[in-house]
Amino acid sequence: MRSIVSISLLVRLYLIICLVSCSEAKFAGADSIVGDSIWMIESKANLKKMAYSGEVTPEKRYIALGFDDFRTSDFSLVIPLLNKYGAKAEFNRIHYSADVTDEERQLVEMVLNNGHELGDHTWKHYSYIFDAPLFNGQNPDSPEGNQVPFPSNSQLRDDVGNGKNAFGHMLSEPVKVTLGSQAPSIDATWSNLTDEECQYIREYFSVMKDRKDVIERTPLVRRLVDIDDNSDLIDILDNLSNTYLGTSGSSNGSWSREDGCYKGGIFTGCKTSANHEIWERILLVTKLFVQDKFHVDLYTWSWPGSKSSMCVFPSNGKLYYDSQNKQLFNNLAKFTSSLFRTKDGEYKTRSWTDVLKKMGYLSTHDATYPGRRDGQTLPCMSYQYIMNASQSRPDALIYSTNRCVDYSKIASEYEKDKSFIGKESLEVQMYDRGGTFRDAIETWRKHTANGIIWGEVIDSEDTWSEGIILEGLLKYGTTTGIEFVTKSEAYDISFNHSLIEGNLIYNPHLRNTAKEFLPESKTVPSNPDGYEGDCSVENEDDIPVLVTNDTTVYHHFGIPCGNIHYEAVVKGKGFIRVRFIKNSTDINSIGSSELVCERKIDSEKQYCINNMDFTVPTNDMTPYEQRCAGWGNKIIGIRLEYSGGLRIKNIMMCKK
Fold first, then answer.
1. Containing H/E element for 29?
2. Is this prediction's pTM over 0.90?
3. What tens digit of pLDDT does each residue of 422-451 get?
4. How many other β-carbons are positioned within 10 Å of the β-carbon of residue 596?
5. Given 3-state DSSP classes, what are the helix, strand and coil percentages for the chain, each rounded to the nearest 5?
6. I need a surface site. Which of 103, 294, 335, 360 has the fewest CB within 10 A?
7. pLDDT digits (tens, 9 = 90+) for 72-108
8. What phi-psi label fits residue 327: left (phi over 0), alpha (psi between -120 and 50 degrees) or beta?
């Protein structure tokens, strides 16, 4: 047995070496994980990525664009437009097969040869492997054929109180669990689910599903499910594991009662078929597959848009993976493996985010962010990518991105009316109409002037609307000084550049880039970029002056730790206040956060220099918590509050 394993190991190591020679990633030697029959090559990825080549200054602004799915219009429309305006982006590929066609290779080459980045968008667009990690379908707590599956039939259809099942669903309600676009609906209430339907729900959310087996024994599924479309995810993963990791056979049907583990496929050596058992292997075989087929490494991961299972345990307005309400429903929830061990021989306890980091991934976006999918009750800022290495968060892998540019929602805005009759420019008309184009510009100009590298994820569609809106936004960015960068470049800007010299205010000249871009528009708000409230800008002797008619706020993310000096020339009667923003600050309650210092202004006839000195402490990490990965007490910015009735110019903030 040992000699066979040694030969197999040598073959696998030779394959790894061959793959590494044509990529930047480096994979170390194999470590024994479980007994003599299972091995794992762990990623030791070289952290040299797509580094940002420009100079990072407080007056620069950045947008990190991502396009999901590898859609046709990404290549016919999006890449040509990006190239026209000198913009870069990330394109996240879905992997459908363990092989690739010449056409697929050409698409990847088009992405890379034009300076863009290739991202990982999962296998077959399934999110269930990652956001429902405890689902297994056939948990071998007892010998096969007499299993106790999770979730149990009782948890799905029995009353645990108030007429609800363990997942908080009313038993009298129809089952509305999202099973995907090609999955059958279950025509039953929760209380009336059959054993077969309970098993189908379990298997759908488990990577361990075997649709051929389900179809053979379940009339409901046999009637409604297309085998070709739904039976091959575990087959693909087994194929990849057998090709790149030296396993053999298939996972399904390989459970060994004697050894208490699976003997075949990607689940080889696992003592349970819960999804989190093979997280590392999925990422590893994906990296090796992409290196083998496209000669490039993967550093970014995009959460697929598939709906979550919603079979999570509710408690006090929050959602949990487990009935004990200890594992919050987010990417930071840690699970103990029965397969992967530490150097000390202990079984690893890790989250999906931990696994992504271990495999060399720099960022993920559109993710299950803490505080977002648990009822939004946990206070936690969602700004990890800050234009200052001294304040960017160490858990920044979870890059909370948004869909301001959502083409699925804008057809009614533009597609039916392509005339745009009027004297104003096309961009002015789109902005003044409101909707997607205006929302994107207003969001981008606000956050980029606050020091955030704004992330945007887009599902492109080959429509006239997409072309005019995307080109308009690219025009806005490039003509006003916003740079469009890849996700790896955003990571490099955030973590390898520290802004500690000169004036650290991100919009010192009080620019209103929407007004600069759309001078003919009559609907552009008067507030300069980054400032919120009833305010405007006037010029006095060619010096911009902030005029506050009511309370005006400027959020400054990325202010460095240490002694800080604030200074401004002010006229009027009122106050200027400084508040700290912590990671644990609820984004909706920043106004009630800790007051650091206050300067009263009483100079209505002439301008006076007003200054404040304060210290930004370097707070220690708190014990590990689900929110902010223990960095909840870390200060990531300040809130400047100006009362109404002030005229302010020459605003400066610097490190003393």
1. strand 27-34
2. no
3. 566 889 988 988 888 899 999 999 999 999
4. 17
5. 30, 25, 45
6. 103
7. 989 999 999 999 999 999 999 999 888 899 999 999 9
8. beta
